[in-house]
Design goal:
Number of domains: 3
Radius of gyration: 19 Å
Distance between the termini: 20 Å
Shape: globular
CATH class of the largest domain: Mainly Beta
Structural class: mainly beta
Strand order of the largest sheet: 13-15-17-21-22-19
Number of strands: 22
């Protein structure tokens, strides 16, 4: 069984961390409590659902691919994450529906001058990146699993390698995807400071070697570290999102 991670530092609508909040995970559609685990292998079920976030408001669980409703609450507030979709992040093109003008009949074709708009949707529960030329054919994402990348891959997708330990790795300003192909098991301890809200999907592109994202590791400058409870080991095609917060002066792992 392939499991996927959800991890987040939970806060209320005012940005206040919900320390020790109770995290409840339900399946969208049935409303039943989901089967969740504390490890990617699924060997350790989280028996209590809801379960408690830590003292810093950080919560993490693993679950099968699907759509979930996640609520976090304490005695004073509740934060709800609706329609959270867990699944494998892949490169590729999403299935499209579109408003047809003239002879636009070939599905996704960003260079087709007759396309008024192309609406992108994922049909298999996976998260895709879509690369298109917005000036020619406007792309509209109606699906949170489809990440639109303007223009070509150049400048949006950054590639890296490495083995051993990599400190303070510099992510470019316009990078949305960091594809790492390790030459041996590698640990990245930080990614260099960035601007507020900069989101990057980090993916391991090697079939065998591990890509480990270290949690709060002193090997990198404080402003370059990744804020999370523990290290994340990504296997082949495994991926995680990180987002930079100038308020925290750190990268933060996000679902």
């Amino acid at each position: 069984m392939t499991l996927h991670v959800w991890q987040h530092t939970v806060s209320d609508e005012n940005g206040n961390v919900i320390a020790g909040g109770m995290v409840e995970v339900k399946l969208v559609g049935t409303g039943a409590l989901a089967s969740i685990y504390s490890d990617a292998a699924g060997s350790t079920p989280i028996v209590d659902n809801p379960f408690a976030a830590d003292e810093n408001g950080f919560a993490r669980f693993y679950a099968a691919a699907g759509v979930y409703r996640i609520s976090v609450s304490d005695d004073f507030t509740e934060q709800v994450y609706e329609d959270v979709e867990l699944g494998t992040i892949l490169s590729g093109v999403a299935t499209a529906t579109y408003t047809q003008l003239a002879d636009q009949t070939n599905g996704i074709n960003a260079n087709n001058k007759y396309a008024h708009k192309i609406v992108l949707n994922s049909t298999d529960g996976r998260l895709y990146r879509a690369v298109g030329v917005l000036a020619v054919s406007p792309w509209i994402s109606m699906d949170s699993r489809v990440v639109i990348v303007p223009g070509s891959d150049t400048g949006n997708v950054q590639t890296a390698a490495g083995t051993g330990t990599v400190n303070d790795y510099a992510i470019n300003t316009y990078t949305r995807f960091l594809d790492v192909t390790p030459t041996g098991d590698v640990t990245y301890t930080g990614f260099g400071a960035s601007y507020d809200g900069h989101e990057v999907i980090v993916t391991n592109r090697h079939a065998t070697f591990l890509l480990i994202i270290a949690a709060n590791n002193v090997g990198s400058d404080a402003a370059a570290r990744v804020r999370m409870a523990s290290d994340i080991a990504l296997t082949a095609d495994g991926a995680m999102r990180i987002q930079y917060s100038t308020g925290l002066s750190q990268w933060v792992a996000t679902p």
